[in-house]
Amino acid sequence: MYHFFVPDAGDGPVITITGADANHIKNVLRMKPGEKIVVSNGSDRDFYCRIAEVLPGEVRAEVLPEEVEESELPAELVLFQGLPKGDKLEFIIQKAVELGAARVVPVAMKRSVVKLDEKKQKAKLPRWNAISESAAKQCGRSRIPEVTAVLNWTEALDEAKTLDLVLVPYENARGMAATREALSRLEPGMRAGIFIGPEGGFEASEIEGLTAGGALAVSLGRRILRTETAGLAALTLCMAALEIRAEEL
Ligand code: SAM
Fold it and tell me: Which CATH architecture has domain 3-63?
């Protein structure tokens, strides 16, 4: 079912969709009155709706009583992604959104080859967030995960300190005991972070800085994953642990 975001959705029995989404419904999807869609307010609520009117530049949808199945993970996962080369970050953002990440935080790490100055960042940030919005619509998220501006290492560490649990998949970590321990600590309602190094990996001092703050260095297995694979693998492990635990409750 098609999914749209209307920030003030839910204030009344009818939701009005305007702009690009209205155009998409009318001229691309050619939807007609009577068809059903899901409208989210982008933060915490979803509404089943039935299209009532399709007008030029505006679509009116009546809110239906049925509850929409929760599509968000029961915990907040923040991906701290070491700034990768090229446009890999766009791929990482799209997949992280599909896997349920709440936020994607690009981080300039010691071995990040790419250096993005203010100007370059200004140009990229709207595109990164547009990719997040498009992925959120496609996979039926209730919220649009934020992609933040690039943080430096100190800023990323400071943000990590506000989280309940931090995992750092580390290419030199050996054995799965720490991975199992970390996943067993992940509980619904938590705010958890995942730090992924860039192509060149982590400097030992970065790992020390994270683990000194309580982060758990974990292995993602005996193979060296590309940076664009590792975050998704870690998110998948966390997503599965959370969804399995949520069903057990
Ligand atoms: N330059 C490193 C090397 O050759 O050993 C590889 C770094 S890897 C391409 C990029 C990031 O993915 C790592 O810093 C780590 O965060 C994660 N990663 C890749 N493979 C991993 C594994 N088997 N276990 C844990 N983390 C891994």
Answer: Beta Barrel (2.40)
Place of tokens 């703050």: 213
What is residue 246's predicted lDDT score, i.e. its pLDDT?
A: 83
CA 29 – ligand 1 centroid, Å: 42
Q: Are 16 and 10 in contact (CB under 8 A)?
A: no
Give the sheet arrangement for strand 46-55, strand by strand. 3-5, 36-40, 46-55, 58-63, 14-18
Reported as a single tens digit per residue, the pLDDT across 94-142 is: 999 999 999 999 999 999 998 888 899 889 999 999 999 999 999 999 8
* pLDDT tens digits, one per residue of 72-87: 999 999 999 999 999 9
Q: Does residue 197 have its Cβ closer than 6 Å to ligand 1?
A: yes
Q: Is the CB of 231 under 6 A from ligand 1?
A: no
What is the tens place of the pLDDT at every residue in 141-153?
Answer: 989 999 999 999 9
To the question of pTM greater than 0.85 for the whole model, the response is: yes
CA 197 to chain centre: 17
What is the CATH number that goes with domain 76-248? 3.40.1280.10
For the chain, residues classed under CATH 3.40.1280.10 are 76-248
Cα angle 204, 201, 210; round to 5: 45
Instruction: Say if strands 216-218 and 165-169 run parallel, antiparallel, or are unpaired.
Output: parallel
Residue nearest to atom 27 of ligand 1 (CA): 171
Distance in Å, CA 223 to ligand 1 centroid:
9
Determine the length of the chain.
249
Q: Distance (Å, rounded) from C-alpha 235 to C-alpha 233?
A: 5
